[in-house]
Specification:
This is Amidase. This protein is 35% helix and 13% strand. It is built from 15 helices and 13 strands. An 11-stranded mixed sheet has the order 1-3-2-4-6-5-12-13-9-7-8, sandwiched between helices. Strand 2, helix 5 and strand 3 form a beta-alpha-beta unit. The two termini are 21 Å apart.
């Protein structure tokens, strides 16, 4: 009975626990049992915390027994990406340099989720310091995609996406510096949201100069919810959003009622759609699935849909330069000197490159140009839709396909739809748009104007009502594909 509850969304689970229909400990034990059964196939976790989870669940039940009001996430099992700090729980960032690192404090988001009575099941695997769109790293086995165990779940929030798709938990925390919430959301058939820059504060990740590698990507990184329903992400945002003095980029957030936004009227929307941004090589099946989803969405909403390119150029080199610019090159080069071949090859190559000052300043100028292009473009549209990724899930232990639709491309080309919106800080979500003929999930990206997070959530919820996805489950976890 308790195992079946894990297929419910977080909103339902929290209500059942709050109402006394089931205890937090019963739900947590069911999650631990399911994790023991399915985790050997999926390999989502690098550090499981079953004892801590049961202690936290007991505290939630005791709080209820005393008649105290439970938080918004009362007893809901949560997993946290291993790049995000957790006090007293190992946080390795997928690197030998931090293999035994145990933070003294929680990230702000973890602090807030636990204060809302969520229960931490453990930390999920990510590539070394998040410098990859997939999940393999030098310390742990690569997480596997529950829809096809031979395929990647995407990254860098790889384990979080895999855990959600395998239904080991109803909510997960990821981070997104170039798509790393949206990428695994698309590859794993779940929902992921990167809110506007500053909506969700970050600390110590990206901000604490004491930790080379961890303190990177400051103006690109976001932390965001990954869930099986849009409502659950809205619920998490209602807990996580809001300013904090530890993050100088954080902004006031009282202009968004996260849960009420799900019912926001959507009549008269002007929607732009681009299947390739005018330059991206896109797998034909992905192109067809997302095009049909976008057209159906607009048709059923009665919205205007223009199939038009937003004028975004190929800025992969700009993204790489901004990442390097915001990395602690001095500290990480010292780290590389000590680790040598124990560091990920692509990360080693970035650190050994002879970067020029002009490369960094040119990249920053290009980012300004793209931001200006996008605010001008979005004056004409409420939303921009596109594929989230250029390809379906591909085999484990590769950075990305180098041939897409017959074109030779860089191994990171498949990510080209995602990182521009880390440049601009606009809100962007990935919703499940459909499945390939072989049963692999495909995501559609929904991008809003800067700070119009409520509309992105409303549109995502509307698409979920038009084309539901949560009833479809992976064959690999022992449940028939609907």
């Amino acid at each position: 009975m308790f195992d079946a509850l894990l297929d419910e969304d977080a909103t339902t689970l929290a209500a059942l626990i709050r109402g006394g229909d089931v205890s937090a400990q019963e739900v947590t034990q069911a999650a631990i049992n399911r994790m023991e059964q399915r985790e050997p196939q999926i390999q989502a976790f690098c550090t499981a915390t079953p004892k801590l989870a049961l202690q936290q669940a007991a505290a939630v039940d005791a709080k209820r027994a005393r008649g105290e009001t439970l938080g918004a996430l009362a007893g809901v099992p949560l997993v946290v990406k291993d790049l995000i700090c957790t006090a007293g729980v190992k946080t390795t960032s997928g690197s030998h340099a931090y293999a035994d690192f145990v933070p003294e404090e929680d990230d702000i988001t973890v602090e807030r989720l636990l204060a809302a009575d969520a229960v931490l099941l453990g930390k999920t695997t990510a590539p070394e310091f998040g410098y990859s769109g997939v999940g393999h790293n030098p310390l742990f086995p690569s997480p596997r995609n529950p829809w096809d165990l031979s395929k990647t779940p995407g990254g860098s929030s790889a384990g979080s996406g895999a855990a959600l798709a395998a239904r080991l938990c109803p909510i997960a925390l990821g981070s997104d510096g170039g798509g790393s919430v949206r990428i695994p959301a698309a590859h794993c058939g779940v929902f992921g949201l990167k809110a506007s820059m500053g909506r969700v504060p970050l600390w110590p990740g990206c901000r604490d100069e004491r930790y080379p590698g961890v303190s990177s990507w400051e103006s690109l990184e976001h932390i965001g919810p990954m869930t099986r329903s849009v409502r659950d992400s809205a619920l998490m945002m209602s807990v996580m959003a809001g300013p904090d003095m530890r993050d100088r980029h954080s902004i006031p957030c009282n202009d968004v009622d996260w849960l009420a936004s799900l019912e926001k009227p959507l009549s008269g929307l002007r929607i732009a759609f681009s299947a390739d941004f005018g330059y991206i090589a896109v797998d034909p099946e992905v192109r067809d699935i997302v095009t049909q989803a976008a057209r159906r969405f607009a048709r059923e909403l009665g919205a205007e849909l223009d199939e038009v390119d937003p004028g975004i150029a190929d800025e992969g080199a700009t993204f790489a330069a901004l990442v390097a610019f915001e990395s602690d090159l001095t500290g990480m080069r010292h780290m590389h000197a000590e680790l040598g071949a124990r560091m990920s090859p692509h990360l080693s190559a970035m650190l050994q490159r002879d970067w020029r000052a002009e490369t960094f300043t040119d990249a920053n100028t290009t980012r300004k140009k793209l931001c200006n292009q996008m605010w001008r473009f979005m004056q004409h549209y409420d939303l921009l839709l596109s594929p989230t990724l250029a390809v379906p899930p591909f085999p484990l232990n590769m950075q990305g396909p180098e041939i897409i639709d017959g074109r030779m491309v860089r191994s990171d080309h498949w990510l080209s739809f995602c990182f521009p919106f880390n440049f601009t800080g606009q809100p962007a979500a990935s919703v499940p748009a459909g499945f390939t003929a072989s049963g692999l999930p495909i995501g559609m990206q929904i991008v809003g104007r800067h700070l119009d997070d409520g509309l992105v959530l409303a549109a995502s919820a509307a698409f979920e009502r038009i084309q539901p996805w949560n009833h479809i489950t992976p064959v690999s976890i022992g449940v028939a594909h609907d």
